[in-house]
Amino acid sequence: MRSKLLLAVTFLLLALTACTTPPAAQLGDAGAATVPATEPTPGAAEPIAPVASPTAEPTVAPTATATATTTPMPTLPPGVARCGLLLPLLAPEVTPPVTRLSGSPSLAAVPDAARPAVQQILREPGNVGLVAYELGREEQGLYLNPEQPLPLASVVKIVYLVAYADAVRAGELDPSQPVLLADLERYYLPNSDLGAHPDAVADLRAEGRVFGDPPAVLLEDVPRMMMQYSSNAATDYLHLLLGQERLETTITNLGMSSHTAPCPFLGQFLLMSNGRGAAAGYLAEPLRYGGDATAATLAYRDAAESTLSRGWRARDRRPDMEVQMLYSELFNAHASAADYARLMGLIAENQLGTWDHSVLIRRYLEWPTAFPANQSLAWLGYKGGSLPGVLTASYYAQPWDRARPVVVALFFHDLPLQTYREWRRSLPNDELARWLLYDAGAIDTLRLILFGE
């Protein structure tokens, strides 16, 4: 899919270069899809995940047709680092993906709820990254396009959590310091996260963890909002608090060589409003995308009703699902399933630092362990993500009958939008991961199905 997108957008870039018409005028060209009116509206009830609780992600209800007006980007303030400071913004195609499988097509051994995910892998294996193994038995693991950088969606928030824990351990952040809710709200883009941020705030209020006048929460609750509820506002608050250099250095120090630079979610979604023509320009000048994504985030944060926020909220400017899918495929942070499986293994066995450092990280990842459905595991760490056409998840789990933890990284991208919508409700990707985590023979069985060995 990446090569098809590159070809399509490169063709658009050439057309724009040869034409005096502004890029925005190209947005309504042939190929822009009209999204059915049945697209779920933001804030709709989420399905109950089989392994964890719902993860609300920045999937925005589209309008019938996006307009072609491009919003001028503000200037990045002096001393503020753009995303892409140390890492690339575009992922290279380092290894041709596996596009044909040679295994047995029989799915009799696959749980019914997971079969749609396996069928999708069999149909389009080139659009999946999958790594699963028990620690210490990596050679007997399952690997499909393990090194291919793919869009991460909210799985990238695991890196933010590690960077936060590093800053706490270094004494640079105090988890007991208050954070005004108003400061978090400055990063909240209405209609962009299916209610993840409001749900997080509501639950904190119900638990008595919102206090004071003006209302505030403790800093230690912000990573919870990011990991358990997948609040993008909480993530972007931490992004600016930690700083771009720390985030990118954290990725480098973790040895995640496939990783591209993370940009604020708020800025990513604001830039989508500029449409396909702007995407072509950013593809030619990715560093400009990094600067614009950061600058747009700051402009929105610092102006309650900025031009950018009004542009997003207006129905004639909100990007349709096809545009969101294009930007997510090209500019969302990418990394490989192998890198995230390795990271989850390090976390599961307390290999990232001192004991208390590991406890801090695992505290935020292992919240699904408390669910009754997960009591057959000693513990379970999880982060999922979704963007239009993208469903990702990284897990570690300690089954009672296994000597060491099992890790699974499962990244789908370029899903047909109808499939994506259906999976947001039925979650066969999570069911597939659940099977690989829980069933001692599942990794071998799926490897036989996919590869015949």
Order of helices and strands, N to C?
HHEEEHEHHEHHHHHHHHEHHEEEHHH
Give me the Rg, rounded.
Answer: 21 Å
Number of contiguous helices = 18
Strand content: 5-15%
- How many domain units? 2
**DSSP helix fraction:** 40-55%
Please, what is the average pLDDT? 84
Give the overall form.
Answer: globular
* Stretches with pLDDT under 50, minimum 5 residues: 6-69
Q: Give the strand order, joined by hyphens, for the main sheet.
A: 2-1-9-8-7
Which structural class matches the secondary elements? alpha+beta
Cα end-to-end separation? 27 Å
Number of strands: 9
Biggest beta-sheet profile: 5 strands, antiparallel
Q: Topology, pairings included?
A:
Blueprint: H1 2-17, H2 115-123, E1 128-134, E2 142-144, E3 150-151, H3 157-169, E4 178-180, H4 181-185, H5 196-206, E5 216-218, H6 221-227, H7 232-242, H8 244-253, H9 265-272, H10 275-284, H11 286-302, H12 307-313, H13 321-331, E6 334-335, H14 337-348, H15 355-365, E7 377-387, E8 390-399, E9 406-412, H16 417-426, H17 428-438, H18 442-451
Antiparallel strand pairs: 1-2, 1-9, 3-6, 4-5, 7-8, 8-9
